[in-house]
Phosphatidylglycerophosphate synthase (Modestobacter italicus), 256 residues
Amino acid sequence: MSAVLDTPAPPGPGPAETFGQTLARLGGAQKGALGAPAYSRFVNRRMGRFLAAAAYHAGLTPNAVTGISAAFSATGIALLALVAPSWPLGVAVAACLVVGYALDSADGQLARLRGGGSPAGEWLDHMVDAAKASSLHLAVAIGLYRFGDLDARAWLLVPLAYCVVDGVLYFGTMLNDALRAQHGVPIRSQQRGERAGVLRSLLVLPTDYGLLCCVFVLLGAPALFLSVYTLLLVAMTAFLALASVKWFREMGRLPR
């Protein structure tokens, strides 16, 4: 999930800059890849780069891109809660969420392309991310309750548990960055000196929001979707448990 920084810079590119030149500039304005899961690192950021370049040439601000991202994500979430599961619905939900996530990357890239931004823009981006992370799983619970042919209502606990785990993980990540910044320690997205290993990106793939977006294409086979969705919850819960121990130790090493 990217941090958007809105900026008062001129709304569009210079008259001589081509789309390809804008993409090239964006290539040098990327966040560090350390700790980034595979989909976010290798797919979403590249999609976001193209969308950021398009938004730049269209004269959009980062906050406008954040708003468009929120609209796509909200549409996918609403469909989950309001429409009975089917293959076409799965494709529509996944498409909305994937585009929304790519635009979530684009807003931060656009801000860096324009030279920086404001705390208000970053606040807006994180608020949208927090609302999206919680409401997505609640929409899954509503959809299961309304349309699911479940042998045991206990399955409804899966999206509720996912909502809690996702919320704690998101808050913990933001809190870690805030405490590191407060004590003058670079956050992960600023650590460019360390090599970001591909293996680590693959190992943390189950925690990737982008992978979760893609899983919704399975809505046409509810039992399969619920099985994969539950496995992702188990993997994220295990990651959170291990990461929490590591983070606590790291916070303990920060200067008083």
